[in-house]
Amino acid sequence: MADNLSISQRSYAMSKMRSQGNRSTELRMVELFRKNGIHGWRRNYKVHGHPDFVFLGKRVAVFIDGCFWHKCPKCFVRPKSNIEYWLPKIERNKKRDREVNVELRSRGWTVLRFWEHSLKRPKLVLKRLQQSL
What we know:
Blueprint: H1 7-15, H2 23-35, E1 41-43, E2 53-55, E3 60-65, H3 83-106, E4 110-115, H4 122-132
Parallel strand pairs: 3-4
Antiparallel strand pairs: 1-2, 2-3
């Protein structure tokens, strides 16, 4: 589909959009923690790699990776437009994820990564989380 805006108009429109983060997935995880009596977690704690949740006492970092942004092998749908931009960006995200995992583990952290779609099966998420805590 052709864009109905000029390049400068599209650039301006996009510059006005602000990230919402992965608020919906984080809130689903918060709900999961609360329903199951999981305590000791912190959000937005300043740890290398900016995990979504941190359990300081147990040194567990939890990331919830968006299926598009981190190229989920199950759900990823290749973008149809602007491929020259999106594919390298997504590959950089995956590379950064691997580097963050290595760095945190070298500092003694347990790193848990859940795909966004895995929150649809909360029992599996809980089981993996409880094994690490």
